[in-house]
Write a structure and sequence with these properties.
The chain has one domain: Stationary-phase Survival Protein Sure Homolog, Chain: A (3-Layer(aba) Sandwich). It contains seven helices and eleven strands. It has 261 residues and is of the alpha/beta class.
Length: 261
């Protein structure tokens, strides 16, 4: 298959690179358009009030690669409209692997990773978003180490990337064009080669109080929290599947928004 790959953690993210390597190992033709800098929690924002630069670059990914000085949505929109060859047909947009989970309503709506996939759906393409759950200590160590994973995390990331390379073609093939569907996949911590995939729904999580009180300089600072899960016991949610060590697969069907009944 032929995939356009993006992410929200930026072009230098090892999580993106491992996804690309796994997809290429599966024999797929790839094009990468990713943000220049981390764009976490920007949702589906587009850079309306400033020009956006897109620059061809070689990041050792073995495929045409562009660095976009904007959001994930910018990257996909510009790539589809202006960077990819005119006579080229893309089978799907694949976004990720995100550093951290994108599970539950509170996170799905805010996710730049899912937004990159959603931009593909807005172009009538099948779309898949991948995210890797991490504990707070692992995340903090990763950031302290300049986003370079230690050997244990890197080995697990490769496993998750192989799962992604197996799942992406199946989800893309099963999704009709112009269906406005995004497949949201979250890998558990730890993720094993034998980890099973479960169909899930988004957990009903409320996420209040994400900012600190004003400091001495009058500013408020983001305080990460997972929120409060208000989900019923059934059906299985993305958060519950991750807690059980399972790979969560949620079909986000945007056509169902505002449905009657």
């Amino acid at each position: 298959m032929r995939f356009l790959v993006t992410n929200d953690d930026g072009i230098e993210s090892v999580f993106l690179h491992e996804l690309v390597h796994a997809l290429r190992a599966g024999g797929h033709e790839l094009f990468v358009a990713a943000p220049k800098r981390e764009q976490s929690w920007v949702g589906a924002a587009k850079s309306r009030n400033r020009p956006v630069h897109a620059t061809a670059a070689d990041r050792g990914l073995g495929c045409p690669t562009w660095i976009v000085d904007g959001t994930p949505s910018d990257a996909v929109n510009i790539a589809v409209g202006h960077l990819l060859p005119r006579d080229l047909t893309i089978d799907a947009v694949v976004s990720g692997i995100n550093i951290g989970l994108n599970a539950s309503l509170g996170f799905i709506i805010a996710s730049g990773t899912i937004a990159g996939a959603w931009e593909g759906a807005l172009h009538g393409l099948p779309a898949v978003a991948f995210s890797q759950d991490l504990s707070a200590p692992i995340y903090e160590k990763l950031k302290a180490d300049g986003d370079v994973p230690d050997a244990e995390l890197h080995a697990m990331l490769k496993i998750s990337a192989r799962h992604a390379a197996r799942l992406a073609p199946d989800f893309a093939a099963a999704t009709p064009a112009r269906s406005f569907i995004v497949h949201n996949v979250n890998f558990p911590l730890p993720c094993h080669a034998h980890s099973v995939v479960r169909r899930t729904v988004p957990a009903r999580v409320v996420v209040p109080g994400l900012f600190s009180p004003a400091g001495d300089d009058g500013t408020h600072r983001l305080i990460f929290r997972l929120g409060d899960d208000l989900s019923p016991l059934e059906p299985l949610t993305d958060r519950a599947a991750l807690a059980a060590g399972q790979i969560s697969h949620t079909v986000l069907d945007y056509k169902a928004l505002g449905a009657l009944g």
